[in-house]
Every structure is written in C-alpha cells, then in structure tokens.
Amino acid sequence: MKCRLADVDLEYDVSGASRSPTLLLVHGFPHDRTLWAPQMHALSGTYQCVAVDLRGFGESSSAPPYSMDQYADDLAALLDAIGVERAVVAGLSMGGYIAFSMWRRHARRVQGFVLVDTRAGADTDMVRARRTEMLALVRAGGVSALPVRLSAAQLGASTRARQPELESAVLAMARRASEGGVLGALEAMMARPDSTNTLATITVPTLIVVGDEDILAPPVEAEQIHGLVPGSRLDVIHGAGTLSNMERPAAFNAVVSAFAATICDTAQTH
Fold first, then answer.
1. How far apart are the first and last CA of the chain?
2. Which of 40, 98, 120, 220 has the fewest CB atoms in 10 Å of its CB?
C-alpha cells in the first residue's frame, strides 16, 4: 500500500487485526520491508504488523532530506495516515537509531520498543571510515557497487554455513534501493547523535534482541542498552548475526510474541 506524505511516498504492508497492539517494523541498512516477511504472518495473531519501506528504499520514493529525525517524522506521519495512535516500534540496526529519534521527537506515539541488533552510540572512527568508503563506491558506481561483504557481515557464521541463500536475499534488498536513498542513509548514520543519554529516559516496555554472532552490533552493545533502559528485557538469539529476525525467525518470533503480554499488561494499568 502507498502512503503519500508531503514530499515522499512510502510503501507499506499491514497484517493482523487492528484491535491488537500495532508493531511498526523498521528495517535497517540497506534493507526494505521484505526484511520482515518472517514476522508479517507469524506475528499477525498477536499484533497488527506494519512493515514500511523507508524513504529511498524498496518501493518508497527517494527524496531528501535524509536524517534519523526525518525518518522518525515519516513514521509518525504514516501512523497518522493509517489511524494508529501508538505503536510498538521495532527497529533493526539503523531502524534502532530511528527508534531513538522516535522517542525524542514523538514519545507519545510509542507504546513500546523492540530494539534489534542495534547500538546506542554514534559511529566510531573505524565505522565512519567504512561508511565513507561505501559513499565513494556508490557515487562512482551506483547501488550495484555496494560491497558484497556488507551482506555477508550482517549474517552470522552459522547462517552463512547453513543458509547461504540468505546472503543473496540480503544483497537483493540492497540492489532495490535507490542511489539517493543509500547515499542519504549513509550520511544520516554518520551524522546521527549519540543516543546513550536517551536510554535512561525511556519509560515504555522495551525488549532488546541480539544475535550472539552479531559482529556489527555485538551482544555487548545490547547489554549496554539493557543496563540503561529501565525495566528492559534482553533476549539473545543463538546462531544468528545482525539479521536475527531472518536467520532464526522461530526463535525471534517467540520472544517478540511473548513481549506482547507486557504491552497489554501496561496498557491495562493506564
């Protein structure tokens, strides 16, 4: 489905009953809403699942500006358009960075968080250098120049050994992105603020999920978030990397489904 905003068209899918808590599924870089295919059906009995292509990715149109705040504003506008007052925001990797911006800018719209294989801190010098290299590659050769090693790094060693087809699926998502979307997202991630101080201000139920083989946002990052978000829960998915929702979907879906009880209990006490 298409949502027409002031300066961009966002494509999104919905599954599940509107009376259930809404789970807003926010993909990472350089993905699109198909990242969440294993959740759209499996979690539709527990949540109303909404998976969206961020501006510049998948089937959404590409238009500047690109920033974590702009992505967050887009998501709030999408919730307005589909008549959802509050949602559980599930953000993977870059989607987690956007989730932190959602809290700073649109806290009243957030019913809970599922923070997946993400980190709160700003880019290190090493990560910034890697993104700068990718910027140069894409500017010179387009999206097809994105390094294949990017998709490999996002998958755990167990997945690469047992499910090699997932590497092709991840690469295909990257190839569907627009050049402007990829460049804009890289620059936005490099410019994003350190969200560490935001964590202690989070007052909604929060689930943190991390793959034990994640080398990009390793479990130590998840443990830091868990230690700073009051009352949060941490679940480790064994045999998975950054894309734990795709790599071990049954395990991922089980913990996110169970988290719905926390959301419902909290809603009943307010």
1. 33
2. 220
